[in-house]
Specification:
6 helices, 2 strands
């Protein structure tokens, strides 16, 4: 199954891709400063990362109750759960518009869909829970040979075992988020230049 690093980066990337408010015009006296700067919209990207990793809280609950991994990939990985949490976040943040909602929904859905692409018994996702509890396993992605068991392992040993997989996911997916942010920055700069053209024309009259 993918690690939380992959889920978070994909969730953040989907929200960043959906936004048009990540950058604002920069007010600066420096002639070579960039035309735009990050604004408060970056918090939406943070929430995208949270939504992407949120379903794996069922694993913590499962470990805490001593159930191993039996409930992992259940209702928190479902389409219904993604609809509920993305709708709730949209309402709480008062972003009642299709674009923010689509970003949050995509981030929330990405976790279950990504887990459903695995084929091992530890992977899969009950996408249609609570109506169908059987986990979907499309078998597109191979599973990691990572089966932590807090009952017999220390958290430090689990972290050491997970580190190579997390590092690999970061190196693979972090560039995707960076590229999306750069594209959004360029788009914002182009929009600012386009909006300033009529003003420049009037000034030249």
């Amino acid at each position: 199954m993918p690690m939380p690093v992959a889920h978070s980066l994909i969730g953040a990337s989907l929200v960043a891709l959906s936004r048009r408010d990540l950058f604002l015009p920069r007010i600066s006296s420096k002639p070579r400063s960039r035309a735009v700067q990050l604004r408060s919209g970056w918090t939406a990207v943070f929430w995208g990362a949270i939504l992407g990793a949120w379903p794996d809280l069922d694993l913590m609950l499962s470990w805490g109750l001593g159930w191993g991994v039996r409930i992992h990939g259940g209702y928190t990985h479902s389409i219904l759960f993604a609809l509920v949490v993305s709708t709730a976040l949209t309402l709480v943040r008062r972003e009642i518009a299709w674009r923010p909602y689509a970003g949050y929904l995509g981030a929330a859905l990405s976790h279950g869909l990504l887990d459903a692409m695995t084929k091992d018994l530890f992977g899969g996702a009950a996408l249609l829970s609570p109506w169908v509890e059987e986990k979907v396993r499309w078998g597109v992605l191979p599973n990691y040979a990572f089966y932590p068991n807090p009952a017999i392992q220390s958290w430090t040993s689990i972290a050491a075992e997970a580190w190579p997989y997390c590092r690999r996911e970061f190196l693979l997916l972090a560039p995707l988020l960076i590229v999306i942010l750069l594209v959004q920055c360029r788009r914002a700069e182009a929009s600012i230049r386009q909006a300033s053209l009529p003003v420049q024309k009037l000034a030249g009259l």
